[in-house]
Write a structure and sequence with these properties.
Order of helices and strands: HHHHEEH
Strand content: 5-15%
Largest sheet: 2 strands, antiparallel
Strand order of the largest sheet: 1-2
Number of strands: 2
Number of helices: 5
Structural class: mainly alpha
Shape: globular
Radius of gyration: 16 Å
């Protein structure tokens, strides 16, 4: 049975995620946490294949998730236009940069906003 402290910690994490995006999917949190973990343990920024192979999320889905987590979105609207129904805003939690050796590959890292979110999530889990 989970302790009341662990439930409160999870509630704080969910509230933090919902403050960023009202229906923040668990897959987004998994991708963010994997990026942080990979950089920490491997000393390099992961690419889409690394994330897909280690999270069980298919590559096309990872790519769509990263578009939302980054500061870029495909199909942006012109100034003053509403986003299409069901589209998500760019959250600015992940930075995308070309690999210096293979320019076809994109490397992923957390922005300062993303690092702060992961730090708070980790803190909330450790304090439970």
């Amino acid at each position: 049975m989970p302790s009341s402290a662990s439930i409160r910690g999870l509630r704080r994490i969910m509230n933090e995620l919902r403050a960023i995006e009202p229906d923040f999917p668990a897959s987004y949190a998994a991708v963010l946490r994997f990026i942080a973990y990979h950089v920490e343990t491997q000393g390099e920024e992961p690419n889409v294949a690394d994330i897909a192979n280690n999270t069980g999320i298919h590559s096309p889905s990872v790519s769509r998730i990263l578009l939302t987590l980054s500061d870029r979105r495909l199909g942006r609207t012109s100034l003053g236009e509403k986003r299409p129904a069901g589209s998500r805003k760019a959250l600015g939690l992940v930075s995308r940069t070309p690999d210096p050796v293979d320019l076809r590959m994109i490397r992923l890292s957390l922005t300062e906003k993303g690092k702060g979110l992961i730090a708070r999530m980790t803190e909330n889990l450790e304090n439970t």
